[in-house]
Amino acid sequence: YDIAHISGTNAVWVMAVVEDEELAKSQYRKFRIRVDRNDDTANLREVLTRRFNHPKWRFPDLIVVDGGAGQINVAKEAIKNVGLNIDVVSVVKDKRHKACEILWGNIKSRALDKSLFLANSEAHRFAIGYHRRLRGKGFRI
């Protein structure tokens, strides 16, 4: 999951899916933020709650969020609120917005590094593209 906005305007979240180290583009989803567009953790809570209200969409084995400990905690809370048991990790970016670290939460294995960075970079690409398209159309909520 990744977000794109400019100071809270035109805020969107996206969900990208990676299966067996391959992008599963048919399972990608886009979300326009409805509530607090300038609070990334509140937005993540909103998006995950909305996402989990779609039981026809396959639930993941692992959720990768963009951010830090705050995003991990919000994701875990949203998962717990719907009674699911899904692990969460977070990809942290440096000052130049390049992925530099993975916060593993309770997961011990690091064998997934390649897939996690792929999921994060693809979600970022997808979010920016969606945000730019909507911004170009004069999108406002």
Report the major sheet: 3 strands, antiparallel
Task: State Rg.
Answer: 14 Å
Query: Distance between the terminal alpha carbons, to the nearest Å?
Result: 20 Å
Order of strands in the sheet with the most strands?
Answer: 1-2-5
State the share of residues found in helices, binned by percent: 25-40%
What does the overall shape look like?
globular
Summed up, the helix count is: 3
Strands, count: 8
Strand content bin: 25-35%
Computed structural class? alpha+beta
Give, in order, the helices and strands. EEEEEHEHEEH
Query: What is the mean pLDDT?
Result: 85
Low-confidence stretches: none
Topology of helices and strands:
Layout: E1 2-6, E2 9-15, E3 18-19, E4 22-23, E5 29-32, H1 40-52, E6 62-66, H2 69-81, E7 87-93, E8 99-103, H3 113-136
Parallel strand pairs: 6-7
Antiparallel strand pairs: 1-2, 2-5, 3-4, 7-8
Description of the molecule:
With 141 residues, this protein is of the alpha+beta class. Helix content is 35%, strand content 26%. The protein is built from three helices and eight strands. Strands 1-2-5 form a three-stranded antiparallel beta sheet. A hairpin with a 5-residue loop joins β7 and β8. α1 runs parallel beside α2. It starts with a strand and ends in a 5-residue tail after the last helix. The model has no long low-confidence stretch (mean pLDDT 85).
